[in-house]
Design goal:
Bound molecules: flavin-adenine dinucleotide
Keywords: FAD, Flavoprotein, Oxidoreductase
Cofactor: FAD
Structural class: alpha+beta
GO molecular function: acyl-CoA dehydrogenase activity; flavin adenine dinucleotide binding
Number of domains: 3
Protein name: Butyryl-CoA dehydrogenase
Family: Belongs to the acyl-CoA dehydrogenase family.
Strand order of the largest sheet: 4-5-9-8
Length: 409
């Protein structure tokens, strides 16, 4: 276990500064344009691929940082640059993690390279779980996957929604129901290879924020994928379903649920770190503005009403980062999340980002309300953090259930 320290080591500082440079020089200057265009910023993704930021290797390196701080540090810097563009850069990672977590070595080796493409021909991937009637309530999922024994193929039918990179992805990872009796334990994940007939993009959403990130419905109509596209393979699925049926009969199921919860606790701090990046960006703009903008013959920061807001903003951001770092450190060191510390970090950081970006608009006055200054965009972007990867209400539910052991509804 790494020794406890509040300081990043030299290697981490080097990576952080490198990412910060990319965020400042490449992402930030492109942010307003791609927000207005509401399109995937392919040239920026390509730049990121050229320097090695858009690649599985980079995230794997950060993931295996023994302090746990590699991923949150990377997320904070990239999202400090711009949330929409950064999500376009890291969105593929969501699908890649789905394959890494459940796939066989062969599946990992076959599909992950196709998710990223290469610097001359970048590709993206999508992770499709949410549905129109199954958002927070994942167990209500309707997309079905039926095994066709004669052809050794799975046949997928259903409609996914809110998929980041949905429809424009080279590879889609789709979660579907294979045994409706088992609720969320009867789900499995499938690779849908490039250009598979039957998969199409539904509506592309026009969003409030993170508009440089593509979000769309994905329609699956008799999509046939080879048996080898079931992540983890059929044997493992059959064993897992048999265990789940046994447990259901015996009235159990806690162990499976706990394993899924532990995965979420480990992944949520990364979203918290994105929120810290956006909050920090807005705070920095507000601090700079407050020290230079003069009213009544003095900088507006001379007023406690403004200065105290900035003090509160910075305090909340630092507190959010500490919660994110603690949960990330716990995840990498295998510490049990006995108080749902991962959910706690996501809850606090995302609420902080929403609040701090709003305060930044207030400090910039009329300018803050226009697209001449970036805090307006940052405030729109920040609203996503309390919604995706589990809403704030769902985080509170998880924390309260974990603390109390009660089935709070
Ligand atoms: C921009 C964007 C990108 C996304 N990317 C992806 C992606 O790549 N892949 C993917 O699969 N999904 C993705 N999502 C989906 C996202 O995870 C869901 O939107 C989220 O889980 C919430 O589901 P919902 O929108 O259906 O809201 P609902 O579940 O309908 O919730 C509506 C409201 O009710 C509240 N609520 C619901 N249940 C409870 C409860 N039990 N107690 C208290 N309050 C409750 C919620 O907190 C929320 O405030 C994305 C969403 C967005 C907006």
């Amino acid at each position: 276990m790494a020794e406890f320290t509040m300081e990043l080591n030299d290697e981490q500082k080097e990576v952080r500064d490198w990412l910060h440079g990319f965020a400042a020089d490449v992402i930030r200057p492109a942010a307003a344009e791609w927000d207005e265009r509401e399109e995937t910023p392919w040239p920026v993704i390509q730049e990121a691929a050229k320097v090695g930021i858009y690649s599985l290797d980079f995230y794997a390196q950060q993931y295996f940082d023994p302090t746990g701080l590699g991923i949150p540090m990377a997320m904070e810097e990239l999202f400090w640059g711009d949330a929409g563009i950064a999500l376009s850069i890291v969105g593929t990672g969501l699908a890649a993690v789905g394959v890494l977590a459940n796939g066989t070595e062969e599946q990992i080796g076959t599909w992950i390279p196709q998710m990223y493409g290469d610097a001359n021909d970048v590709k993206v991937a999508a992770f499709c779980s949410s549905e129109p009637d199954a958002g927070s309530d994942v167990a209500s999922m309707r997309t079905r996957a039926v095994y066709d024994e004669a052809t050794d193929e799975w046949v997928l039918n259903g409609t996914k929604t809110w998929a980041t990179n949905g429809g424009i992805a080279n590879v889609h990872v789709v979660v579907a129901v294979v045994d409706a009796e088992l609720g969320s334990k009867g789900h499995a994940s499938f690779i849908v290879p490039p250009n598979t007939p039957g998969l199409s993009q539904g509506q592309k959403f026009k969003k409030h924020g993170i508009r440089a990130s593509h979000t769309a419905e994905v329609v699956l109509e008799n999509v046939r994928v080879p048996g080898s596209c079931l992540l983890g393979g059929k044997e493992k699925l059959d064993e897992r379903l048999a265990r789940a049926r046994e447990r259901a009969k015996a009235g159990g199921g806690e162990r499976v649920k706990n394993a899924a919860m532990a995965t979420f606790e480990a992944s949520r701090p990364a979203v918290g770190a994105m929120a810290v990046g956006t909050a920090r960006a807005a705070y920095e703009v507000a601090l700079e503005y407050a020290t230079t903008r003069e009213q009544f013959g003095r900088p507006i920061i001379d007023n406690q009403g403004v200065a105290f807001q900035l003090a509160d903003m910075r305090t909340s951001i630092d507190a959010a980062r500490l919660l994110v770092w603690r949960a990330s450190w716990m995840a990498v060191n295998g510490k049990p999340f006995t108080a749902a510390e991962g959910s706690m970090s996501k809850l606090f950081a995302s609420e902080t980002a929403k609040k701090v970006t709003g305060q930044a608009i207030q400090i910039l006055g009329g300018n803050g309300y226009t697209r001449e200054y970036p805090v307006e965009r940052m405030h729109r972007d920040a609203a996503i953090y309390t919604i995706f990867e589990g809403t704030s209400e769902i985080q509170r539910l998880v924390i309260a259930r974990t603390l109390s052991g009660m089935p709070i509804r």
